[in-house]
Amino acid sequence: MEELKALAIKKLEERGVTINDIALIVKDIQSIYRNISIDECIDTVLYVISKRETIYTILTGISLDEAAEKGLLDEKVNNLIKNDKGLFGLDEILALSIVNMNGSIALTNFGYLDKIKPGIIGKIDNEGKKKIRCHTFLDDIVSAIAASAASRIAHNVEEN
Ligand code: MG
Questions:
Q1: Which of 22, 128, 156, 158 has the most beta carbons within 10 angstroms of its beta carbon?
Q2: Measured in angstroms, how far is the CA atom of residue 158 from the centroid of ligand 1?
Q3: Is the Cβ–Cβ distance between 27 and 41 less than 8 Å?
């Protein structure tokens, strides 16, 4: 699993997303409630990414984005993914496999991030819209990881 986790992180970076980018979003959400260090956010993001479900979702979602970018899929499916139509919806569904493991706050955060698109989420969303790259699955995956990490931190605070 360690090997797959390293691969998932490498693929995220190849697609323009670093652990630090995701941690900054987590810090932003949580700073409403309390002061939190970027290191704690990075550790929690890495914890979320160490889970099997997260790793599989990252690798599968990015594979689909890359395949659509290269035009490797069935033409109709390829267009659906490449054009990131609002009603396609499977990108959100795939990302929910990450959110679902991390408590109800993760789901609320996920909806919030999908609307606001802060930081790196907005950046990749723009790249996708301008057809620079296909990030149909990636934006939801990054939102799901950030939403889940923020949720874990919030739940930890309540337990302490
Ligand atoms: Mg999407």
A1: 22
A2: 31
A3: yes
